[in-house]
Amino acid sequence: MGNFWTGYLEPGLWIVAQILVMILPVAVSVAFIVYAERKILALMSLRRGPNIVGPFGLFQSFADFIKIFFKETIIPTGANKVVFLAAPIITFVLAMIAWAVIPFGPGLVVADINVGVLYLFAISSMGVYGIVMAGWASNSRYAFLGAMRSAAQMVSYEVSMGFVIVSVLLVVGSLNLSAIVEAQRGLWFAIPLLPMFVIFFISTLAETNRHPFDLPEAESELVAGYQVEYSSVSFVLFFLAEYANMALMSGITTILFLGGWLPPLDIAPFNWIPGTIWFVLKICLLLFVFVWVRATLPRYRYDQLMRLGWKVFLPVSLIWVVLTAGALVAFGWLPTKG
Questions:
Q1: CB-count exposure of residue 58 (10 Å: 0-12, 13-18, 19+)
Q2: Which helix (H) or strand (E) covers residue 325, if one does?
Q3: DSSP symbol at 60
Q4: Which of 101, 224, 261, 265 is the most exposed place for a label (fewest CB within 10 A)?
């Protein structure tokens, strides 16, 4: 497909077209993720959820976005205006550009680079800057406390996530995301690396500030945390970034542990379904678990959050890396790829 279109488009236009094809579906899917979350939460608490705007309430999220876009953008008097407005833009841009290396299928990736894992880890690590900038620039104690909570939380769980990724890379022998998917033909890594799969998914909940680790936005103490002073378009950018990050983390989990675009079994009728459909279905399943956790679990205390990250996940993931490396050396399973 790429060779066909590149014959008609200039290289620069072709790159722009690829970016739009990547960003627009992600941005539109956020609206349906929000709708699905509200519907699932309503069903789990025996309510109706959105059911008025459009058939089955499908257009409710779009109506909400339009309403928020037409609201006035209010900047607090004591805020640093430049940093205040730059923070949501940085957060949203980082949430979007991370999708550049995500393979939706064989060859269906904007940038199939050999260090895709490092790229994703770098982008996810930079996400904390937008949140800290928002908390500091708002000149509000609630926003500042929320930003500090979020920064400490994200840094704490990125350590264990890093060790989990290292254990996967030891098995694969490559930093290329497509190679990681291809290495799971016949057996998804979620089975032999089940403890790492569980730790990684729980860490993604903390990394995205989702329930039960949503302490940076805790309504009872911080009113809304680092985004308490935001409204209109700036608030929408934070909102879009949060749900885009949820989908991104689900996609990364799918690539690392659930075989990416590979079907559960390489037999009919599973292999009749296109790989991209399998990839999207796995992301939807993980997003459902995101919502399911929000509907069922109480919020952690902050000391419990930190204890889980530093005293449970960190030592377990570190020990598992040592065990994985030892098993690969002892049984001669070292990968040949560089």
A1: middle
A2: helix 314-330
A3: H
A4: 265
Its pTM stands at 0.89
**Angle at the Cα of 289 from the Cα atoms of 316 and 60, rounded to 5 degrees:** 145
pLDDT of residue 335: 67
Q: State the angle between helix axes of 275-296 and 11-44 in degrees (0 to 180), rounded to the nearest 10.
A: 40
Give how far Cα 133 sits from Cα of 128, 155, 160, 163, 254, Å.
9, 16, 25, 28, 31
Q: What is the pLDDT of residue 2?
A: 45
CA-based Rg of the chain, rounded to a whole angstrom?
A: 21
CB-facing half-sphere around the CA of 53: CA atoms within 13 A: 12
Q: For residue 61, what are the CA distances in angstroms to 33, 67, 321?
A: 9, 10, 42
Using CA atoms, how far apart are residues 113 and 98, in angstroms rounded to an integer? 12
Q: Are 97 and 27 in contact (CB under 8 A)?
A: no
Q: Residue 171: which residues within 8 A CB-CB, separation 6 or more?
A: 183, 189, 192, 193, 324, 328, 333, 335
Longest dimension (CA), the chain: 65
Tokens at 204, concatenated? 């993604």
Q: Phi/psi zone of residue 273: left (φ > 0), alpha (ψ -120 to 50 degrees), beta?
A: beta
